[in-house]
Automatic annotation (TrEMBL), chains A, B:
It comes from the Bacteria. The keyword DNA-binding applies. This is DNA-binding transcriptional ArsR family regulator. Keywords: DNA-binding, Transcription, Transcription regulation. It comes from Methylobacterium brachiatum.
Amino acid sequence: MELELAARQLEALGNLTRLRVYRTLARAGRDGLPVGALQQRIDVPASTLSHHLHRLIQTGLVAQERQATTLVCRAVDPAMNALIGFLAEGGHRKWSAGPGSVSA
Amino acid sequence: MELELAARQLEALGNLTRLRVYRTLARAGRDGLPVGALQQRIDVPASTLSHHLHRLIQTGLVAQERQATTLVCRAVDPAMNALIGFLAEGGHRKWSAGPGSVSA
DNA sequence: CCCTTATTTCTATATATCTAGAACTATCGC
DNA sequence: GCGATAGTTCTAGATATATAGAAATAAGGG
């Protein structure tokens, strides 16, 4: 992974609200969560949440998919796995990624 | 690990210059590197570097130790391991940490 | 079409960050 | 103590971020 992408993703996660959003999505798993459901759990104005979601999406950590009138958000596991891999290999030592890698 | 600390550490790493600094230190290993050596490798004004180092230190990702007139900086592995662990467990799935954990 | 629900985009403002020169501090060797 | 070397702290300006209300857009139902 390239340094720049990693930095942008780390920055995206480096905000309390966004980290909460991301974790909530990560825990929601494959089904994801509609923006509205996220808003209830995170308790932040819609416009603010949308702004933060946008940043997470830009970095590839989160994806959105429209389902009728609601937008379902999902944590993108491969992105997180790559980021974790990047951090873990930093010192040139390795982490063994268990069979099912992951996200958070 | 608590969410807040994780967010601050992620934010600290979420800057290209700081991420470079951190990685350089991580690769330098236990011996660490004097601030001056870092400056040569990263190529950034001393005051700017110092500012970034300060932020990394505040979050516990980096430590400094005085050796005579030079300040030696080191990546704090346990901090990075905890952060990686935090990210990896986010989705409630696990990562197997190899024997020698890590840093990056 | 119009209404409702869901969510984004626009806009403004307050606050924080980044950058880097200049001045200051610390430590050593003489 | 002096001077040289190594870094930090001070300062300031430019830029970026976070927050949130208000207006706009999207989709479905009647």
